[in-house]
DNA sequence: ACATATTATATCGCGTGCGATATAGTATTA
DNA sequence: TAATACTATATCGCACGCGATATAATATGT
């Protein structure tokens, strides 16, 4: 049974279920997020903005573990939808001060529905969710604060 | 401390670490997969083909939890790179029989290096990997064999 | 047999995600 | 203060990943 190629069998990868589950969850969000006129990535960006009230692009990149080449067009779309505004920081003109519009702030209450709906879609126990959460953050945090390079 | 909006704080989502960790892992694979001239998605597709030897597009879609609109162009790229060949099935002309070329078969041995390199990149214990694996597959399998609709 | 349904694959348009690179503004340092 | 380094944001091109839809081949039902 044991063979040379076991290590590159799909069923022996940890990366694949991570990838597949992530795709699946994003797909499940879609119908609920459609009602807010948000994509999944736009939704998690709005989460950060709802909490911070004011932010810049760098903060968003770090919070979402994304690069500027993903976040720049994302912010453009949120602006086009009328949820955010971008201004240059008076103190440091490189900085992009991002603020929520009235519509952007109002969206927060509508969004409260989303986690309720999603809870019914993903069938894992509270304990499993906690364990999952802890291990995933171990992977993320390990990478986030890379000291070398 | 407890507020109305806790449920839509980024730190309280299970979807986000899943999404971020998946992105990160894919990013970590890149330098190793570059040596095989494969992207991450092409890599997991090749894993299936190395095992099955012969397959069709539908089988790949199911194995990778992807839709034909992702897999069709993927296969075109693998064909352009000379790793696979596509022919119509004589018995059922709708079927696309996918076979590995010589180069595609040879790539398998080069790929053995990849999991070794990746093991050094992701710092979780064997137990954590096992738990993660089990929970993620619970999410995936729950979705895969959806009976209604 | 023939209209209808089903199946496998393909196409279209959009929004990511990324590495690489460019640009503009600020800080540093000689 | 003038060259240099650094920082925040933006641009480019490529490869997904998706819902919606199209097309061609096979299966089904009357």
Give your account of this protein's structure.
The structure is a homodimer of 149-residue chains. Chain A has 7 helices and 3 strands. The first copy, chain A, is mostly helical. Chain A has a single domain (13-141), classed as Arc Repressor Mutant, subunit A (Orthogonal Bundle), CATH 1.10.10. In chain A, strands 1-3-2 form a 3-stranded antiparallel beta sheet. The radius of gyration of chain A is 19 Å and the shape is globular. In chain A, 27% of the residues are buried. The model of chain A has no long low-confidence stretch (mean pLDDT 94). Chains A and B meet through helix 1, helix 2, helix 6 and helix 7 of A and helix 1, helix 2, helix 6 and helix 7 of B. Chain A binds a DNA duplex (30 and 30 nucleotides) through residues 23, 26-27, 30, 39-42, 56-58, 61, 66-74, 77, 92-96.
Strand and helix layout:
The structure is a homodimer of 149-residue chains.
Chain A: H1 15-34, H2 40-52, E1 54-55, H3 57-64, H4 68-80, E2 84-88, E3 96-100, H5 102-111, H6 113-119, H7 126-144
Antiparallel strand pairs in A: 1-3, 2-3
The first copy, chain A, binds a DNA duplex (30 and 30 nucleotides) through residues 23, 26-27, 30, 39-42, 56-58, 61, 66-74, 77, 92-96.
